[in-house]
Design brief:
Helices cover 45% and strands 17% of the residues. The chain is an alpha/beta fold and 417 residues long.
Length: 417
């Protein structure tokens, strides 16, 4: 049996299709081996193609039989990832999702009002992975309610639940009664997916995840180097591969830094997410117990986190980045330890910081960043909309972490003045 089968799904039916082609060409140049099988599916404005990579520069290319292929449809991802894994059984399975667009296709704009068209084009800070996510938001009955969904981080919450459904169906399809399977590696070559909510949601279906809590440069991952490393080390473990991808990503973007300067990436061992959830829940409990006292301290902690990044990056970062929705968890906890005089809150916040800093940490295996404005980040973001600035998404309660860590309850108290 081969060591690895890796399926790379490039949803590039947008203005970044040239970068997707660049990524896939790097895989073409190296191809598969007897031990490493790579299958890719790319969807661009010119149509979709599946590539069964064989020897270097050799591949079989075919079109999906679906008449109107939509890479934003989670059913398509499930179908073709499952087919790749079943066709090429392996000791380890890896799924890489390449998506830097908003999930919308040009024809989606025909049936909406100019106001909503403007709203969608202006709101690209938290893009959606799946078409079903956007359909859910657009199903709200009024323009104003739809506008709220686009403004409060609903994309991220719904995507998180959709992604769990996708991965669950894939792992169920490749499992047998005698051999239940997880995905050994999930790679998110997409923006903002290294959140505690996503990692916790997938902890029962995925062993290791590689993602960024920041924006991902259009040049994305250095696939030629990663595939070359895989060829040289076909027996590499999922844990080692997750940290190797982070290292290669860091090295590449040091050599070719993106204009915006956004370079973060972390490898996460999802088996540690339950323990991390308990530490965060203890912090939530302390905040809930005396929110009137802690509200201003928490907002000051968020502002310290925010201004540090803006002011150390020559003022180039927007002060309302991600519309106040996603915050680096460790950075906020660190600021709380510096601001509070309440001993219970200090201890709870220190425990969160230590959960990232201890060697080994509870869940983050490797965390890299470029730029002093990212110093002290932990690698995982958390949803934390402040009062009077950003609403709570009505969909956040669907996310497992929101309930299990009491985070939804804490945010609700935070927003209740």
């Amino acid at each position: 049996m081969r060591n690895w089968t890796i399926f790379i799904y490039l949803a590039a039916h947008n203005n970044l299709d040239a970068y997707a082609r660049r990524s896939i060409e790097q895989v073409w140049d190296l191809g598969s081996t007897d031990q490493i099988k790579i299958v890719t599916l790319i969807d661009t404005p010119d149509g979709a193609k599946i590539y069964d990579h064989k020897d270097p520069k050799t591949y079989f290319a075919g079109k999906p039989p679906d008449q109107h292929f939509d890479s934003g449809d989670p059913k398509q991802l499930i179908k073709y990832a499952t087919h790749a894994f079943q066709a090429y059984p392996a000791e380890h399975y890896g799924l890489i999702l390449w998506s830097h667009g908003t999930g919308w296709m040009p024809h989606d704009l025909r049936d909406i009002s100019p106001r909503e068209r403007k709203m969608r084009s202006a709101n690209s800070t938290v893009p959606a992975l799946f078409r079903s996510t956007l359909e859910t938001m657009m199903s709200e009955p009024t323009v104003s309610k739809r506008a709220i969904c686009f403004d409060d981080g609903s994309q991220h919450s719904i995507d998180t639940v959709e992604l769990e459904k996708v991965v669950t169906e894939i792992t169920t399809a490749i499992s047998t009664p005698d051999n239940p399977r997880k995905l050994d590696l999930l790679g998110m070559d997409a923006c903002l997916m290294a959140s505690i909510e996503v990692a916790y949601q997938l902890r029962q279906q995925v062993d290791y995840m590689v993602a960024s809590e920041e924006l991902v440069p259009a040049t994305s991952w250095p696939y030629s180097k990663i595939v070359s490393d895989l060829h040289a080390r076909p027996n590499i473990s999922p844990k080692e591969l997750s940290t190797l991808i982070v290292t290669e990503y860091s090295n590449y973007h040091k050599k070719f830094p993106p204009k915006a300067g956004d370079v973060t990436k972390c490898a996460i061992e999802l088996a540690g997410m339950d323990a991390l959830k308990l530490v965060v829940r203890d912090l939530a409990k302390v905040l809930i117990a005396n929110m009137p006292e802690h509200r201003q301290t928490l907002w000051k902690a968020q502002k310290i986190t925010q201004y540090k990044e803006v002011n150390t990056n020559a003022g180039e970062r927007r002060i309302h980045k991600f519309k106040y929705q996603l915050w680096d968890l460790r950075s906020v906890a660190q600021a709380l330890t510096q601001l509070t005089q309440n001993e219970q809150l200090k201890q709870a916040a220190e425990a969160v910081v230590k959960s990232f800093d201890n060697n080994p940490s509870l869940a983050v295996l490797k965390n890299i960043h470029h730029g002093i404005w990212f110093d002290e980040i932990g690698g995982l973001s958390v949803y934390l909309p402040p009062p009077n600035i950003s609403r709570i998404s009505r969909y956040y309660g669907r996310v497992a972490f929101a309930n299990d860590a009491l985070w939804d309850k804490m945010i609700s108290r935070y927003q209740t003045l």
